[in-house]
């Protein structure tokens, strides 16, 4: 329930703090006093479009902040999903409007989008007025009423999960069939490309190995000349390095006999000689393997040219990418060859998931039909005392294909006069009748499930006398289950209130401002007396007001 509302710098409001309690709170005030302004501020909390023209002082921002008691509300999952700080006791929603037109929203001081704000607000507050009575003519809203009466929340969750699985299976089948059809159209092309790639018998990293071999074969003469030079310099016939190192080793051995400073040097040179001899022999062996082979070079050149041609054709960077493309072609042909089997499997999945969703949909439908009977009886019983004693009601069900809400299309059929044929509610009721019907519906739903707080905005327009008193009593009945706030001009309705707020305007030297006062018991009586008598307040009106309140079990 809403506990506190703060409004600053909005229309005729400079700064206003309003406290709300549970039960039925009545809001009254003369036309133009500012009741609609308060509702306009609340609509910002609900995520409605912001109008910068409502900013009172363009030098500062407008702020509307509401504090809600959320004990018992199952909102922790919503807060977690949207990464909002969770407090199981209360929730603070704030909307800020800047003079430049920028709007920001916060939940527990966490910035949120307007979509998140709207989704949260529908779980906290419901503003009901003649303006939104058109909801009653919408099939989706009518179906949601029956689901509320039937207690279908858990079953609906199961159904929507099954329905989404069914739709996912249908989409997968459709996508696969389109893909298979395209593959069939391209089968000849795919086979031709695959034959070319398979004929090459490509090996991983083959292009790198061939490029290395090509470089070697293309430079045989230069390589041999370089290696011959190395071999000759190391172990040639005249003045070779190994011969000279042997001399160095001998001289060091002679010096070691008389000079300890060169001990071990001769051995190190002998080790170097061994290593260099091994190098000279390896170089000689390599020279023997280097044979000028123009045919092999031509084969390598041709192989590389063919690989390069395929890389350009398939826009591949190397042989490994060509191999990946080959494997993809092989996969596509495999799918073509086994497509009937795959399609059959997907069709079986579609059928099984459809059967699962249909089974739950039929359960939903059965519970809705049963709830429609109970709902009709309750609605007629509540509506009759509200000046609609000849009301008749039924729900016209039509079976449709699986949809996000099941297999039912429901339409409320009503008649308000004797011998009148039942027709869709949108075609039969006046504005006042629709308001009273919606009031009855809210009362019925409140008995079956926990609703957010409700604000009734002059839904009693067009009624008077005993009917007005019945409307007030029905609001009071709803308020036993949830918090109800009612804006009204009818004293019969106001007399049912547990709390009473009066909205009025006051003038300063420079401006007119909207104010709200919380009335005590005596002020409550006087306000109802003024509503009864108009400007001429008298004792008869006061006594009448006390009688109205006493009649509604409100002790003075």
Describe this structure in words.
Helix 4 crosses helix 13, helix 6 (187-200) packs across helix 12 (319-337) and helix 17 crosses helix 18 (539-551). A 6-stranded antiparallel beta sheet has the order 2-1-4-5-6-7. Strands 8-12-13-3-14-15 form a 6-stranded mixed beta sheet. It has helices at residues 35-45, 76-81, 114-121, 139-150, 153-185, 187-200, 206-218, 220-235, 241-256, 265-289, 294-314, 319-337, 339-383, 431-448, 465-478, 491-494, 521-533, 539-551; strands at 2-10, 13-19, 24-28, 62-69, 90-97, 103-107, 110-112, 125-129, 392-403, 406-415, 423-424, 453-457, 484-487, 499-507, 512-518. The protein is elongated. The chain has 556 residues and is of the alpha/beta class. It has 18 helices and 15 strands. The model has no long low-confidence stretch (mean pLDDT 87).
Beta-strand share of residues: 15-25%
- Count of DSSP strands: 15
- Specify the helix fraction band: 40-55%
* Biggest sheet statistics: 6 strands, antiparallel
Gyration radius, in Å: 45 Å
Compute the number of helices: 18
Identify the strand order in the major beta sheet: 2-1-4-5-6-7
Tell me the distance between the termini: 27 Å
Q: Give the uncertain stretches in residue-range form.
A: none
**Rough outline:** elongated
- Structural class, from secondary structure content? alpha/beta
Q: Averaged pLDDT, please?
A: 87
């Amino acid at each position: 329930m809403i506990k506190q509302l703060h409004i600053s710098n909005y229309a005729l409001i400079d700064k206003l703090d309003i406290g709300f309690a549970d039960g039925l709170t009545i809001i009254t005030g003369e036309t133009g006093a500012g009741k609609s302004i308060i509702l306009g501020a609340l609509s910002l909390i609900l995520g409605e479009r912001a109008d910068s023209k409502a900013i009172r002082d363009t030098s500062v921002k407008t702020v509307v902040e509401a504090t809600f008691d959320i004990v018992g509300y199952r909102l922790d999952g919503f807060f977690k999903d949207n990464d909002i700080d969770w407090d199981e006791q209360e929730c603070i929603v704030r909307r800020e409007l800047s003079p430049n037109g920028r709007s920001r929203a916060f939940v527990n001081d966490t910035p949120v989008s307007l979509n998140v704000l709207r989704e949260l607000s529908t779980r906290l507050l419901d503003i009901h007025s003649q303006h939104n009575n058109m909801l009653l003519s919408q099939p989706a809203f009518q179906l949601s009423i029956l689901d509320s009466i039937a207690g279908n929340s858990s079953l609906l969750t199961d159904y929507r999960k099954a329905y989404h699985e069914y739709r996912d299976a249908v989409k997968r089948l459709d996508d696969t069939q389109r893909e298979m059809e395209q593959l069939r159209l391209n089968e000849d092309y795919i086979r031709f490309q695959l034959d070319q790639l398979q004929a090459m018998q490509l090996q991983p990293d083959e292009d790198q190995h061939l490029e290395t071999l090509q470089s070697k074969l293309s430079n045989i003469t230069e390589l041999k000349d370089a290696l011959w030079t190395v071999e000759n310099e190391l172990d040639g016939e005249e003045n070779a390095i190994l011969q000279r190192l042997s001399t160095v080793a001998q001289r060091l051995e002679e010096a070691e006999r008389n000079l300890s400073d060169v001990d071990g040097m001769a051995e190190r040179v002998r080790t170097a000689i061994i290593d260099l001899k091994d190098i000279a022999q390896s170089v000689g062996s390599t020279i023997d393997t280097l044979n000028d082979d123009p045919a092999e070079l031509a084969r390598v050149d041709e192989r590389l040219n063919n690989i390069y041609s395929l890389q350009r054709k398939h826009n591949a960077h190397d042989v490994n990418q060509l191999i990946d493309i080959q494997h993809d072609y092989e996969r596509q042909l495999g799918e073509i060859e086994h497509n009937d089997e795959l399609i059959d499997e997907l069709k079986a999945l579609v059928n099984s998931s459809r059967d699962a969703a249909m089974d739950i949909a039929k359960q939903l439908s059965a519970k809705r039909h049963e709830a429609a009977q109970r709902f009709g009886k309750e609605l007629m019983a509540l509506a009759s005392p509200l000046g609609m004693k000849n009301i008749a009601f039924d729900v016209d069900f039509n079976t449709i294909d699986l949809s996000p809400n099941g297999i039912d299309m429901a339409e409320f059929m009503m008649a308000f006069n004797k011998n009148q044929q039942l027709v869709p509610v949108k075609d039969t009721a006046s504005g006042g009748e629709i308001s009273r019907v919606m009031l009855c519906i809210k009362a019925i739903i409140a008995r079956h499930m926990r609703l957010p707080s409700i604000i009734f905005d002059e839904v009693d327009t067009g009624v008077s006398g005993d009917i007005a008193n019945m409307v007030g009593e029905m609001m009071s009945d709803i308020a036993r289950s949830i918090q109800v706030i009612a804006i009204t001009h009818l004293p019969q309705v106001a007399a049912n209130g547990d709390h009473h707020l009066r909205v009025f305007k006051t003038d300063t030297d420079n401006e007119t401002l909207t104010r709200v006062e919380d009335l005590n018991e005596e002020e409550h009586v006087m306000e109802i007396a003024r509503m009864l008598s108009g400007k001429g307040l008298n004792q008869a009106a006061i006594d009448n007001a006390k009688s109205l309140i006493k009649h509604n079990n409100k002790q003075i």
